[in-house]
């Protein structure tokens, strides 16, 4: 976090960074703009993205008793990829209706967010039918494969510019959250993390087995639904703004 404030494509002395952060009147306006408008949002975004994906991975690995479980395995990340692919490759980067048109970065963020929430919604519906965690995990993997296949089909009909833009988005970027968007990003991420804290006790009970947790009075269906909702929110917001970052949820 500190290194991101001190180093970048433009060299800014450490004392100028401090002046910008403290709001000193004698601070260089150019340096202050770079630090406050670019480096601070980027550093906070990276910090919260790492926290959100690590929490998501921990929740899923605990619930499914599987160290390979993670947001990307369940298809939530792939759903975001599919949403962006539909916007950039299928719709030419513009979401248009009878009385509105959304284009550019906002359309990409909206596509990723809707794609993630759609997959999460499917998983929530299936969780009421599939009572076995292993079956739900396998179903999530199958959904991920189906979404990846749809993306591959969209690549076939994509323009050169659309394919290039989609590839760049897929590489990920922590600089995509502007200072005006940062409050929304922070609030949604922190809400997801607070929800995960509320799951500490039931997940501790689940560590000893579902039967044991049920005997302690843990509502297994509700716990699993809240867990999927929390994971979906955290993964959707981070993937929508930063692109797919898969390994943190697994490495935790």
Structure description:
The protein is built from twelve helices and two strands, in the order ααααββαααααααα. The protein has 252 residues and is mostly helical. The mean pLDDT is 84.
Biggest pleated-sheet summary: 2 strands, antiparallel
Strand content: under 5%
Count every helix, treating DSSP H or I runs of 4 or more residues as helices: 12
Q: Helix- and strand-based class?
A: mainly alpha
Whole-number mean pLDDT = 84
Q: Percent range for helical residues?
A: over 70%
Note poorly predicted spans. Answer: none
Give the termini separation. Answer: 19 Å
For the secondary structure, the number of strands is 2
Secondary-structure element order, as H and E? Answer: HHHHEEHHHHHHHH
Radius of gyration: 20 Å
Overall geometry comes to globular
Strand line-up of the largest beta sheet: 1-2
